[in-house]
Amino acid sequence: MQFNEYLKKCREKNNLTQEELVQALYIHDIEYFKALDTSTLGKWERKVTQPKTSKQVSILKYFQQKTGLVLPCWEQYSPDEASELICRSGVHNLIGKSKKHIYNFPAQGMSIDDMHIHPLRTFKRMDVLIDMHMDIHKDINHPFIQITKEQFKEWALHPDALFIACEYKDSFVGLSFTIKLKPEIFDKILKFEMRRDEISTDDFAAHDEIGSSLMIGFFAVNEKAATLLFIRYYAYLIANQRTIDEIGAISNSDEAIKLISNMNLQFSGSHMTEDNVKIRAYRETLFNTLASEYVVKMILAKQDYPEE
Fold first, then answer.
1. What is the pTM of this model?
2. Distance CA 137, CA 271 (A)
3. How far is 151 from 1, CA to CA, in rounded Å?
4. Residue 34 belongs to a domain with what CATH number?
5. Does residue 238 contact residue 174 with C-beta atoms inside 8 Å?
6. 152-211 tens-digit pLDDT
7. Please, are residues 79 and 239 in contact by the beta-carbon 8 Å criterion?
8. Which end of the chain has fewer CB atoms surrounding its CB within 10 Å, N or C?
9. Is 163 found in the same domain as 249?
10. Do 265 and 239 have their domain in common?
């Protein structure tokens, strides 16, 4: 979806005239919108001109405050529908480059349109994928934040966990894992009052309960697979915006922390292990996670991913 489409859709859905929206934006953020008039707003809606990304974020925040929704005018979309609306190149810019989490397997000749995302539990060779992931998981993560193979398999089978795999012509090219926790459990994990290997499925929030999304693991053989996995995760967040309160992650990997920061998660604390490794925690509300420049470029600048 393009920004001009989104702006007009939100204005009309909230029964605002262009003049009323101009006035409301002026009150909302006088610094950004002190020179705004209906002529300029009309040009934005017709895509004659476009405001800077920072102004687009401010407009999104205005509609968040007005509606109480995380991503107004997208609340009705399913994960599949939201995936189609998210800009691939915007996600590609967000994930950046990570040698530990995104490998450099040649992507030439691999069309992103031939890659598909499926729940991990639907694959017959799920056990093989879990074994592969556990090797990578142990290599990347400090023992303090590792989980057991038994936990991993139990979580992968759970209907309220988002364990997804990216497939390319019957080959697996990426995996991503997040769980939705009850708020009090999520808080304990992010405050290091509880370890990840102490989490049980009883701590999961059901699909219709308010909960917080904890990122567990991620890797992909190349940036194309990584892009599709992150599109699916953001589509999941958007489709479930009424029941997800916060996003969080803990890591000892500098490359993972760079990606977490790009997602607009904020540092919330750290823990020093017995062998002097610093584990850092990051968290943010879903409102603020989506109201960021990276995400606005992802969701309001629909364009094709450049093929190599």
1. 0.90
2. 19
3. 38
4. 1.10.260
5. no
6. 999 999 998 999 999 988 888 889 999 999 999 999 999 999 999 999 999 999 999 999
7. yes
8. C
9. yes
10. yes
